[in-house]
Amino acid sequence: MDLSDRSSSLTTAPIGEESPLEVHDLTVAYRKKPVLWGVDLRAPAGKLIGILGPNGAGKSTLIKACMGLLPASAGWVKVFGKPINQSLLRVGYVPQRESVDWDFPVNVMDVVLMGRYGKLGLFRRPTAADRSCARDCLERVKMLPFADRQISNLSGGQQQRVFLARALAQESDLYFMDEPFAGVDAATETAIIELLHELRHQGKTLFVVHHDLPTARNYFDWLLLLNMRVVAFGPTEHVFTYDLLQKTYGGRLTILSEVAEAVRVKEA
Amino acid sequence: MSFIPHFSVHQVFIAPWTTDISSYGWIMLMTFLVGAACGLVGNYLILRRMALMGDAISHSVLPGIVVAFLVTGSRGTVPMFAGAVAAAVLTTVLIEVIHRHSVIKQDAAIGIAFSSLFALGVILIAVFADTVDLDQDCVLNGELPLIAVSPPMTLAGMTLGPPAVVRMGCVLFFSCGLILLFYKELLLSSFDPALASAMGLRSGWIHQLLMIWLSITVVSAFEAVGSILVIAMLILPGATAALISDRLVVRLGWSLVHAALSAVLGLHLSIGLDCSPSGAAVVAGSFLFGVAWVFGPQDGLVSRWWSRKEGRTETLV
User: Fold this and answer.
1) Is the Cβ of A120 closer than 8 Å to some Cβ of chain B?
2) How many CA atoms are closer than 13 Å to the CA of A80, on its beta-carbon side?
3) Comparison of pLDDT for B15 and B94, the residue scoring more
4) What's the Rg (C-alpha) of chain B?
5) For residue A1, what pLDDT band results from cuts at 50, 70 and 90?
6) Residue A40 domain-assigned?
7) Span A6-11, mean pLDDT?
8) Position with higher pLDDT, B279 vs B58
9) Quick one: CA torsion of A198, A101, B249, B256, rounded to 10 degrees?
10) Interface check A155 vs B, CB under 8 A
C-alpha cells in the first residue's frame, strides 16, 4: 500500500489534498462470480458524481464496497486518506428506498433522528440539539409538516425525501446515494436535485447511482460509467459521449437508441 | 354430568384474589413475568421477521441439557441452564452459518438447525441417559402450579419468593435494561441494517446480542411454564401490540399490558375449566389478539369497515 502504487492509471483529482474517495484495484465477488473487477478511482472533492451503467453493472455493489458493507476480494478503499472504518462519521448513505420495511413502527422524526446515531455513539440518547437538527433537515426537504406522520402513510417521493433528510442529519462530507430518483414524482425529483447542488456548493462530494440517461447529462458534474469495470470516469462533458456510453451499455438496443437520442439532444 | 366442570363464581373469580392469593398470586405473577419478558424480546423478533426463532430455540435446547447432565452428572439448575443457553446460542450460530454460506434461506435454515439438534438430543437421551425421566406433559405445560409450593428463595435474610419467579423477575429486569441501553442500536439495525453498518454499528453483534437475550429468556421461562406458553408469548404480545399502535415504544408498553391481562384471564380460565394455567394463558392471550384484530383503533376489522362505510379514505399528497 505504498505511494508508488498510485500509478498514472488513477484518474485526476487535485494533487495535494486528500481525495474524498480513493479506490485502488477493487474487486468484489459474489459466490465466486466477480461483480466488480479492478476498479480504480480518485474522486475530486466538491463534485456531484453520477454512477451510470446497465443492470448488474455493480453500481450498488461499488458504493456498498466503498462503505465497507461488502467485503472486497482484492484492492483497497480510502476515504479522506484513511481506511473506511476510521472515516465512518464523514460518510453519509441513502440506501435504495425498497431496502427497508416502510410498515416499520416509527414516524418521520424517528427516521431522521437515526441520522444522528453515528455521532451520538453508544448509550446516548438524541438531545434537544439533535432534534432541532433533525427538524432543520426536514425543513430543507420540505417535510417538516410530516414530522409526526407514520412512515407507512407517505408517498414514494415523500419517503425518499425523508431518507434524504436523514442523510443530511448525518452532516457528512461524502455521500453515497443509491437511486434517490427511483419512483419519485417530478416535484420531488426537482427538489432533490436542487438539494444535491446545494450540498455540492457546500463542498461536499456526492456519488449518486442514476438510471436515467437523458437527465444524467444535466444533473451531474462528473460521471462514472461502470460495467463491472470502470469504462470512464471524468467530467460529464468528456465522458457523456456515444462511444463511451455504447461501450458501457453494450449492444442493448433500447438503451442504445436512448443514448443516441440523448447525445443528439446534447449536440443540437 | 357435563363437559364443563362444576362452576362456582366464588371459587373462580373471588378466591384467587382473596383466600387463595398466596398460591394463585405467584402463578399469575409468574405468567405475567414470562409473558412480559418474552413479549419484549418478541417485539424485536417480529420486526426482524424472526418470529419462529423462539420456537426453534425452545426445541434445540434439549441436546444442551442432556450434554450438561452427562458432563456434570447433576440435574441442578445451574448446569442445566448453562447447557441450554449454550445449545441455544449454538442454534443461532448454526442457522446463521447455513444461511450465509449456502443458497438455503433463513426460514429453511431454522427448520434444519432446530430439528436436527432436537433429534440429536433425543438420541443422546436414548443412548446415554435412558434413566432420566422426561415427562412430555411437563415439557409442554411446565409445572406452573408447583411454583407456589416450591421452597422460597432467601437473600440476606429476606424471603424473596419462589426461585423460578425471582429468576424470571431478573430476566424481565435485564430485558428492560437492554432495551433502555440499546434502544437506538436495536431500532436502527432492525429498520435499516445497511445504514447501521455504514455507521460502524456491527449488525452481526446486535443480532448475536438479541439471540443471547432470546436464549436466556426462553431457557429461564421454559422449565417453569413449559414450551407452549413461551412460544406463544414470544409472538402474541408483540403481534397484539402491533395491531394497536404503530410506534415501537408504545408497542412495547402494550405488550406488557397484554402479558398482564393474559396472566389474569388465563388463571381464571384455568380454575374454571380445571386445566393447565399455561395453556389457559395462551388461550386468553390469543383471545386478546383476536379482540385487537377486530377492534384495533387503526387497522382493526371494525374500523376498516367503518371507514369504508363513511367513504373516508386517506389521500396521499
Assistant:
1) yes
2) 15
3) B94
4) 21
5) very low
6) no
7) 40
8) B279
9) 180
10) yes
Q: How close B196 gets to chain A, by Cα (Å)?
A: 8
Quick one: pLDDT at residue B101? 86
CA distance B243 to B299: 7
pLDDT at B311 over 80: no
Position B157 in a domain: no
In whole angstroms, what is the distance from residue B225 CA to residue B145 CA?
9
pTM score: 0.86
Provide the residue range defining the domain that includes B125: 9-147+162-309
CATH code at position B51: 1.10.3470.10
How many domains are there within chain A?
1
Alpha carbon distance A161, A241 (integer Å): 32
| pLDDT computed for residue B5 by the predictor | 62
CA distance linking residue B154 with residue A262, whole number of Å: 81
> Which of A167, A149, A75, A156 is closest to A112 using CA atoms?
A167
Q: Cα distance from B60 to chain A (closest Cα, Å)?
A: 30
Q: Which of B287, B283, B254 is nearest to B39 (CA)?
A: B254
Residue A236 domain boundaries: 46-67+84-223+232-267
> B195 CA to chain A: closest CA distance, Å?
7
User: Does the distance separating the beta carbons of A69 and B194 come in below 8 Å?
Assistant: yes
Q: Which helix (H) or strand (E) holds B137?
A: helix B136-141
Q: Is B44 exposed, middle or buried, given 0-12, 13-18 or 19+ CB atoms closer than 10 A?
A: buried
Nearest CB to B248 within list A105, A126, A166:
A105
Q: In terms of Cα–Cα distance, which of A41, A22, A20, A30 is closest to A71?
A: A30
Q: Is residue A242 part of a domain?
A: yes
Chain B hits for A120, Cβ within 8 Å: 184
A93 touches chain B (CB under 8 A): yes
| CA-based end-to-end distance of chain A | 46
Give me the number of domains chain B comprises: 1
Nearest-angstrom CA–CA distance, A170 and B198: 11
pLDDT band with cut points at 50, 70 and 90 for residue B153: confident
Supply B105's cell numbers: 434461506
- The answer to the question of residue A248 being in a domain is yes
Closest CA in chain A for residue B242: A105
Are B218 and B64 in contact by the 8 Å Cβ rule? The answer is no
Residue A206 in any domain: the answer is yes
Residue to test with chain A: of B44, B103, B184, most A Cβ within 10 A? B184
Is there a domain that residue B284 lies in? yes
* Cα–Cα dist B17/B104, whole Å: 52
Q: Does the distance separating the beta carbons of B198 and A110 come in below 8 Å? A: no
Residue whose C-alpha is closest to residue B86's, from B112, B134, B121, B51: B121
Whether B155 is covered by a domain: the verdict is no
Q: B29 lies in a domain?
A: yes
Torsion sign (Cα): B221, B224, B229, B231: positive
